[in-house]
Amino acid sequence: MAGAQQTPRLRPHSLPVTTIDLPPAAVTAASQPASAHARRVPGARRVPRWWRDASVAAFWLVLLWVTALWVAHGGVQDLGSLSGALTSVGRLTGLVSSALLLVQVFLMARIPWFEQAWGQDELARTHRLVGFTSFNLLWAHIVLITLGYAAASTLGLWGTIVDFVLNYPGMLLAVAGTVALCLVVVTSVRRARRRLRYESWHLIHLYGYLGAGLALPHQLWTGQEFLASTASTVFWWSLYAACAAAVLVFRVGVPLVRSLRSPLRVVAVHEEAPGVTSVVIGGPGVALLRPAAGQFFQWRFVDGPGWTRANPYSLSAAPDGKHLRVTAAHVGDGTRRVADLRPGTRVLVEGPYGRLHAGVRTRQKVLLMGAGIGITPIRALLEDLDQAPGDVVVVHRASTREQLVLGQELFDLASSRGARYVTVEGPRVPGRDTWLPASAAHLSDAEALAQVVPDVAERDVYLCGAPAWMAAAREAALACGVPPTHVHLERFEY
Ligand SMILES: Cc1cc2nc3c(=O)[nH]c(=O)nc-3n(C[C@H](O)[C@H](O)[C@H](O)COP(=O)(O)OP(=O)(O)OC[C@H]3O[C@@H](n4cnc5c(N)ncnc54)[C@H](O)[C@@H]3O)c2cc1C
Fold first, then answer.
1. Atom 4 in ligand 1: which residue has the minimum CA distance?
2. Inside any domain, residue 268
3. Stated pTM of the model
4. For a pocket test of ligand 1, which of 196, 333, 375, 493 has the largest count of ligand atoms closer than 8 A to its C-beta?
5. Is residue 43 part of a domain?
6. Hey, which of 38, 102, 185, 252 has its CA 20 to 30 A from 422?
7. In this predicted model, what pLDDT tens digit does every residue of 86-114 receive, in sequence order?
């Protein structure tokens, strides 16, 4: 251990830290099989492990089936001539683009089994990737089909375009749909998105549904593949119907029924620190929601104009069946208005969502790491997790001691539950993505983690914080020997 002695140690314990030696029972428990520690979590539907593989297989089967239909309907034979080849490949790109467009809608339909298998953040990232691919293929479709038809006609390129738009049924609507999709994609490019208010971006993003809907008539009326066989027609109608049903049921129906059946209201609002507010929500509906600590909801506070916009907030305390609590840092209009909420305000929710809960736990020993406002689900988990003294370590990162959101609560909870609470304070290291403060810049991320939590490799690691911080903490955990499947995280930004 000579190397470790030479390395300057972190001085993270700026709040008093309770360190309790691991009792032998906990050490034994740590080597039990993974499933022994996962707890049945009420709001989280238990999705079998194979669900992820099955959903990936279903995705590729859809694309394979689309291609098979194209082959069955003469797609390969048409490759013989230039115009035939352009049109045929154009048809294939259009079909794959349509299928991906529907997959994209499906991914964001908030289907509980998908949500639990993948997590909303991963679904959102896949949605983005699938979306850009679908859009590129859409343009390949437009260009190839136009060139193919122009090559076979005497009208020339511009004449063919005009002919298409004016004389082919459903094409004007498809053009309008393409414009809507262009708007969605352009505003989703990261640089453009950063300049837009989230509200405006989200509103424009909803035009994606319009784009998908407006593309349908031209497929129905002129799309050779859509009508070429019964198998084809049934397949495409089923895909459109499944997507529409998923959105209507899970994005509209379920939240609406829940909110009407189980009314919720603001019970109390209090300031945790300057710029950070907690809201307690209660009502007969709380018990019916069956959330788990660590999960989040999309919240709508019906307090006046603008209430229709939902904001996601994690539970910052373990649910007790009567009340829910969220804690919001004021970063924009939505979070700032939380401070002005009054008791009695009606609350509408969608959820619970999220995979950061006790149900994904694989080991008895757990490391909970939170930074900034990302500490909210960590605080709830600390309260909720089954634990013996020493099982749980909490690492809390903030720029200053004053910014340790819910710090006193975490300290009190840790003390009463026998957990270790470690705070890591200080400004960021300039020019380096790290989970450490500048005062520990001489250490690598993994070295520091191993110093603070020497048995980290035996633990499940739950992470929540800014994306770069979380990525650095995750890398450090992996470098210390934590298997990737034992790291669980929630992104507050998609
Ligand atoms: C799963 C999840 C859990 C979260 N939990 C908490 C929490 O417990 N406490 C807390 O303070 N913050 C939490 N956040 C972040 C919080 O939702 C945003 O800070 C808040 O919605 C910002 O809204 P605004 O109007 O104040 O600011 P804006 O200026 O409108 O938005 C600031 C940034 O917040 C993000 N954002 C805004 N609205 C949404 C939305 N509806 N969905 C996703 N991202 C959005 C965008 O990246 C946006 O650029 C969570 C976010 C997610 C995704």
1. 313
2. yes
3. 0.83
4. 493
5. no
6. 38
7. 999 999 999 999 999 999 999 999 998 88
